Amino acid sequence: MIRDITIGQYYPADSVLHRLDPRLKLSGTLLFIISIFLFDTFYGYIAVTVFLVSVIKMSKVPLKYIMRGLKAIIVILLFTMFFNLFLTQGDVLVRLGFLKITRQGLYSAIFMGIRLTYLILGSSLMTFTTTPNQLTDGLEKLLSPLRRIKVPVHEIAMMMSIALRFIPILMEETDKIMKAQMARGADFETGGVIKRAKSLVPLLVPLFVSAFRRANDLAMAMEARCYHGGDGRTKMKPLRYHRIDYFAYLILLIYMTIVIAISVIENRLPSFL
After folding, report:
1. PANTHER family from the xrefs (predicted)?
2. Closest listed residue to residue 12, CA positions, set 55, 54, 66, 60
3. CA dihedral angle for residue 229, residue 231, residue 233, residue 235, rounded to 10 degrees
4. pTM
5. Are residue 180 and residue 194 in the same domain, yes or no?
6. Number of folded domains that form the chain
7. Which of 7, 76, 84, 259 could form a disulfide with 35, with the two C-beta atoms 3.0–4.6 Å apart?
8. How far apart are CA 250 and CA 244, in angstroms?
C-alpha cells in the first residue's frame, strides 16, 4: 500500500505536457477538478473522460503507473460509495434489513466514484509532469497579487513545495522501516483490517523521528545558505509563456465552455439522477 502512493512524485519524460508552463498546469488542474462536479449527465462524463484520456496520452506517463496511485485511496473510495449507495433517498431497488439501495443512490455511488477517481488521476498527473521547483515557481507567480494585502506568498509556496517533496521521501523511509521490521519477524500482511492497522503503530515512532531529523537538517541547510524569504530574490529560470502555452489555454477554454454548456442545459438532457 505504501509503495502505491504516487502523488508528489515526478515522472521524467519528453512530452508536450512536461514542457508546459507550471502556471498553466496548476490552473488547468483546478479547472478540471471544478468541471467534474458541474454536471450529472452522461454527456458531461463523456466530455471529461475524452479530455482526461487525451491529456494522459500526451503526458507519456505509463497508464499502469498512473492507475497505481488509486490503490492508496481505495478504502476512502469504497467508504464514500457505500454511504452514497445506502443513505440516498429515492426509489427502492433492494432492501437489506434496515438498509436499502435506491436507484438514485446507485447512480450517486457510481458517479461519485468516477468523480473521485478522475480527481486523483488529474491531480497526480500534474505532479507527474511538473518538478517541485516548477510547482513552487508557478504557485508563487499565481499568488503574487496577494502580496498587496501582505500575504507571505513565497513562504506559502515554499512550504507546499517542501511538503510535496517530502511525500515520496517519507514513503520510501516507511518502506525501509517496514522491511527492517519484517526481517525481525513483524507481520504487516496477514489478519483483518484492524489487526493490520495495529501492526502499523510501531512504524510511527521511527517514522516521526526520521521526519523530524530530515526537517531539522533541511532547516539547518537553509540557514547555512542565509535563506531569509523571498524578498530581493531572483529566479535562475524565470517563467515565460510560449506559443504552446497560449494554445493550451485555448484548448482549456474550449473544454470549460463545453462543460459549462452541458451543465447549463442538463435539465433538458436525460439525467441519470
Report:
1. PROTEIN ABCI12, CHLOROPLASTIC
2. 60
3. 90
4. 0.74
5. yes
6. 2
7. 259
8. 10
